[in-house]
Write a structure and sequence with these properties.
- The protein is α+β, with helices and mostly antiparallel strands and 291 residues long.
- It has one domain: Beta Barrel (Cyclophilin), CATH 2.40.100.
- It contains four helices and nine strands, in the order H-E-E-H-E-E-E-E-E-H-E-H-E.
- Strands 1, 2, 3, 4, 5, 6, 7, 8 and 9 form a nine-stranded antiparallel beta sheet that branches.
- The termini are far apart.
Amino acid sequence: MKSYKSIIAAVAVAAAFMMLFGCKPKAKQAGTAEEATPASNTPAFNPDSLAAEPVFRILTTKGSITIKLYSDTPLHRNNFEKLASKRFYDNILFHRVINGFMIQTGDPYSKDTSKTALIGTGGPGYTIPAEILPNHLHKKGAVAAARRGDDANPRRESSGSQFYIVQNESTCKQLDGAYTVFGEVIEGMDVVDRIAAEPTDSRDRPVNDVKILSIMPVKSISSTPASAPAGASAPAPSSAKAVPAASQAPVPAAAAETDATKPKPMAAPAASANKPAKSTMFYPGQNKKNK
């Protein structure tokens, strides 16, 4: 009898031990939040499905800006599509805003509070060959690629991700022929003006963060020429995309420049432990004293 009770007691002790120390958590069910693939790893859309001149809606904390990209700047168009599809721009700040000039965004360092001193120098790790065309000027609402200055970047290659939107045509006219314009705003210039009016610090960064929430393609908006007869429709753009090799990108012709017409680089902060060197900054240049 004692032996039987001893066996029962031993089994009970073993069972209690297993309950306390040997139980494994249940396997996670498929589709739970813990198991979900991060959004950045899931393409938001297929770039190959877009039109030759795709339309995107940039949703910001100040409202929506709708832009159209040009088919004759395919390297910049394709790159923008790729980054947007990977959600690269989600939560990136408008880090450089100059009222009466332009608003600039696209630096991934602006997502990371530990990289504040580096904002203005970030990108995806590559540049894009220039596609500077005489038919694309810095008109109000033009979308253009930021780049390093001519001394560090004589080929005028664009940042792989940073771009700016022209708010004032007259002050940005000096940039014509020096930066790649690859699209334009077709809706939401009031939002551009709203962002440009934000108070900024000494480095032109908005005091209150203004960020991109998402960039997604939208259905193309018809743009029948004003001179077309009533009822006539504009020719539909070809959906076939030209994908040239990088070496086929147009090389800008050397334009005659004078002190009065050439782009005036903004005086960048001197290099230090807290400030990036001028040669690493991506920006459309302007001497703010001449605004």
